[in-house]
Design goal:
- InterPro entries: RNaseH_domain, RNaseH_sf, RVT-Znf.
- The protein is of the alpha/beta class.
- It folds into two domains: about 10-160, no CATH class; about 175-335, Ribonuclease H-like superfamily/Ribonuclease H (Nucleotidyltransferase, domain 5), CATH 3.30.420.10.
- The chain is built from 14 helices and six strands.
- A hairpin with a 5-residue loop joins strand 1 and strand 2 (about 210-220).
- The chain is elongated, with a radius of gyration of 23 Å.
- The two termini are about 45 Å apart.
């Protein structure tokens, strides 16, 4: 495929998104750097317009500044990339729409990511215009909230998201996309004879200063993929395996303490070691002395309502993102939906 064919293919994807024609036109102008921003207006009618950014009022308003380098917009990008669990280095340098689209791959996530990027750019543009014409003040919290709502509503209108996933979407877009796609791709045999499914993950990272960043995350769904519970918290584990166990046991304790949940439960983890330890313990084998045996772990092994199932990370319905997010938190976040 030649360069022109690739370019046409990219635009075909943009036109196919369920967004208003005026937003598609905005994207075309954005990509060609011909939006009526102050720098462009001054090149047409010198001295008739202030060259300064409409949001910060400090630097010249160019495309790069307005959508990337303005101090307010940079704050928005930081929160936005953290929301999508992406490296902040994405912010280094460019505003090319199609390079932005390629920052996240995967069929289950691609359209939601494209839609979210477009929602961010469109929200910044509207905020800029409202600042000029209505003197509206903005902060990053308001803008990020609008971005999340717009992207969700666009995906909902396109049939690419479910209303019941809105709470999860606002904290974990990857998880909501994976849960939506799982619902529309049929059932996996591992859910047989199960009433509820729990997903847990632990995140553990040794930092350059030899400190540890640990987080745990989990969620619970029923067999109709209705989200019941989400959790994200800093962890206390001293190793990756302990982080996985900490997340799994928190999930277990939440279920047994709940008065809402009754039945058979499958707890999913991406740790084959934990699954193996669980199966050996349930079969009557004693744990090695070197393992830290916890009372909750022993109770889980004995509780016949529960089984542990290994799944790959991309099947954890966003528990991995919740765990990584938990490592950055100062206190836990949990919600019954």
């Amino acid at each position: 495929m030649g360069l022109d064919d690739s370019f046409t293919s990219h635009w075909r994807k943009v036109w196919s998104l369920r967004i208003a024609p005026k937003i598609s036109l905005f994207l075309w102008k954005y990509q060609h750097d011909i939006l009526p921003i102050q720098k462009v207006l001054n090149s047409r009618v010198p001295l008739k317009f202030s060259p300064n950014c409409s949001l910060c009022g400090i630097e010249e308003e160019s495309r790069a500044h307005l959508f990337w380098n303005c101090y307010l917009v940079r704050k928005v990008w930081i929160v936005f990339l953290d929301w999508w669990s992406l490296n902040r280095n994405v912010m280094n340098g460019h505003g090319d729409l199609f390079l932005l689209f390629r920052c996240l791959k995967g069929v289950a996530l691609r359209e939601a990511w494209h839609t979210s990027v477009i929602a961010l750019l469109w929200t910044i543009w509207l905020a800029r215009n409202e600042r000029i014409f209505s003197k509206q003040d903005w902060n990053e919290e308001k803008l990020v909230w609008l971005i999340k709502i717009r992207a969700f509503e666009w995906l909902l209108a396109a049939g690419k998201m479910a209303r019941g996933l809105e709470s999860l979407w606002k904290v974990n877009p990857r998880g909501s996309c994976l849960l939506f796609n799982k619902k529309h791709k049929g059932r996996d045999f591992i859910w047989c004879n199960t009433n509820f499914i729990g997903y847990s993950d632990g995140s553990w990272k040794l930092l350059p200063d030899n400190s540890v960043r640990c987080g745990v995350g989990c969620c619970i769904t029923d067999l109709e993929d209705n989200l019941i519970f989400i959790f994200s918290s800093p962890g206390k584990a001293n190793s990756p395996l302990e982080a996985e166990r900490e997340a799994l046991l928190f999930l277990y304790t939440q279920i047994i303490q709940s008065s809402q949940l009754h039945g058979i439960f499958t707890l999913c983890t991406n740790s084959k070691v934990l699954e193996k330890q669980f199966l050996k313990a349930r079969a009557g084998y004693k744990e090695e002395e070197s393992l830290n045996i916890l009372e909750d772990w022993e109770n889980l092994v004995k509780d016949k309502r529960f089984k542990i199932q290994f799944v790959f990370r991309d099947k954890l319905i966003g528990a991995d993102s919740l765990a990584k997010d938990g490592g950055k938190r100062k206190k836990m976040m949990q919600a019954w939906c």
